[in-house]
Amino acid sequence: MESEDELACHELLLLLAGRLPDVALWRFRDWLGEGTLGVLARSLPKSLLRCGIGLDQREHTLLSTGLLRHGADAHQVAATLRVGGATLPRYTFAESPSERANVSDSVSALLDAALRGRPDVGEVRATWRRGESPEDNTGGEKRVLLVSAVAGWPRLTGELQRVLRVLGDDEPSIEVLPPNFDMPDYHRDALANSRPVSVGAVGAAT
Q1: Domain ranges in the chain?
Q2: What is the mean pLDDT of each run of 10 residues along the chain (206 residues)?
Q3: 55: number of CA atoms within 13 Å, CB side?
Q4: pTM of the full structure
Q5: Could you tell me the CA-to-CA distances from 39 to 1, 8, 43, 51, 66 in Å, in that order?
Q6: Which class does domain 91-199 fall in?
């Protein structure tokens, strides 16, 4: 079972989706899934400052709760607090990739086989994320997987990231959502423009 610190970090990394670069976010989630909070504590606050990402009070509390006792620099953590100033959306979402994406649906088929009927997993959905404008070069068009689950969120995230990396996605975007998660606009928009991929035991009809 995950510790309070791991759960705080998982929620914080969910809230940072679409704000932290994919190349950093997937790595932080990988470390969290492996339980290496010391590495995460040394790296995440520094990355937030380097990328110019300020946290609201909710996010700052999660950062402090999750990482201060694991060696995070208290001065760096304090410097991330910036209340107010909502972040403008950087992405739009669509149920299907554009024609120029030239992707097969083999990934969805493999994910369905891996997750269908799985304990603790509910609905699994996929969406395609796009930059807001042709000038947006923050990641291009890519698949985002949205997984509802009742337990095991950090480790499930890490597991699915490793699967997608084997399938060719070097910077996978896996959003494993706990029940009653107060979602930011990023996840609301993603879910509103997604399609079903699979369903675990929690979401299956009885």
Answers
A1: 4-79, 91-199
A2: 91 96 96 97 97 93 97 96 66 86 75 92 95 54 95 96 93 96 95 96 71
A3: 27
A4: 0.92
A5: 20, 16, 6, 18, 12
A6: alpha beta
